[in-house]
Amino acid sequence: MTFPDDFRWGSATAAHQVEGNNLASDFWAVEHVPDSGFAEPSGDACDHYRLYRQDIALLKELGFNSYRFSIEWARVEPEDGVFSRAAIAHYRDVLETCHEFGIAPMVTLHHFSSPRWLMRLGGWEYEKTPNRFAAYCRVVMSELGSLIPHAATINEANIATLTRQMIEDMTGGTGSPAPVGVEQAPVGVGPVPAGPAVDSGEPGADALGTTADKRNLFLFTWSETGMAVVKRSHTMARRAIKEVSPSTQVGLTLALQDYQPGPGGEKASDRRWAAAFDSFLPALDGDDFLGVQNYSRVLVGPDGALPHPEGAELTQMGHEFYPQALENVLRRAASAGVPMFVTENGIATEDDTRRVEFVRLALQGLERCLADGIDVRGYYHWSTFDNFEWMLGYKPTFGLIAVDRETQHRTVKDSARRLGEIARRNALR
Ligand code: BGC
Description:
Order of helices and strands: EHHHEHHEHHEHHHHEEHHEEEHEHEEEH
Strand content: 15-25%
Oligomer: single chain
Number of helices: 16
Bound molecules: beta-D-glucopyranose
């Protein structure tokens, strides 16, 4: 079977994880607090802000026809209401480079990091954050919209729901987060809750020039207010984008784990799906597409996540190697009734042969979905590069391409070549 003619094949990055020196962002500030809980600060990252042209050329050479990346709010609007012409010009160059190489850009407007000034106002719990976010999206899209066929407003709009579930699992429901290391990262959520300075303490707030009650970072916005702010940010942004760039297709992305009930876990498992997915359906109403992001499955018992099965192969994140999860999640998410893109799917491993196998099995599942008439329009592998994995620093390696961070030399892995060949053939075999 071949994939639909215009199927998008690509890989994904996020600005803060690859660009480097994202100085005006909240993450940069909290990374540099003593005892921040971060394994290391992001630093130059993959220096993609400077090297984007050679990187996009490389993606083309490998066989891809698309690239998902994010525009950084903190660069475009480094102070409240102050827009950087230079940053917008930079992203115009990136987008034009994509088009020059025949790479269709899929742009994310918010991928976890926010401008640090937003934390002076109350971050993702501040009632006017949706207006601020929509204003930023309006500026970006009125300048660059004609170059952007697909825009995702918010990456993993539901991430705080999942972070909360994970913390409940780790603390037996007491909800008090503790720093955890790679080995302990329990389930298929990307970032792991950080140490005290970031999740509750004053030092993070000081570094951001704010107070603890206002320092509401996107990843930890799990209150009712926070969730409402995130959802309204999406709907207001969509409206703003459609006004200035009507031809851009707009959606958001959700982190969707394959919840599988263990003995007696049916209700708890359904509750998790409802929190992560169903509760977002009203916000998705009117969207052109849904971005589905999946890494693994989670076995759920009556009281929360169950341990991995005996002998399960685990990734560097402590996730179970379970690429079949993608198919299950796509089938379930199809109920949203909008076209879907797989905007992230991947594995943190040192052993690239396991990545090759992961991609092969995940894509077989995707192919079965297509054969059953499920509308999936693209597959973006996470990630293009070994990059800054948030609190875990550079230790987990998700990339199709390795990066020597001393020299910024890129080394293409076998998995990149294999996926590139699939993209070129538009078929698995
Ligand atoms: C995020 C990425 C992250 C990845 C792997 C996703 O939750 O969107 O930023 O690096 O998972 O953990």
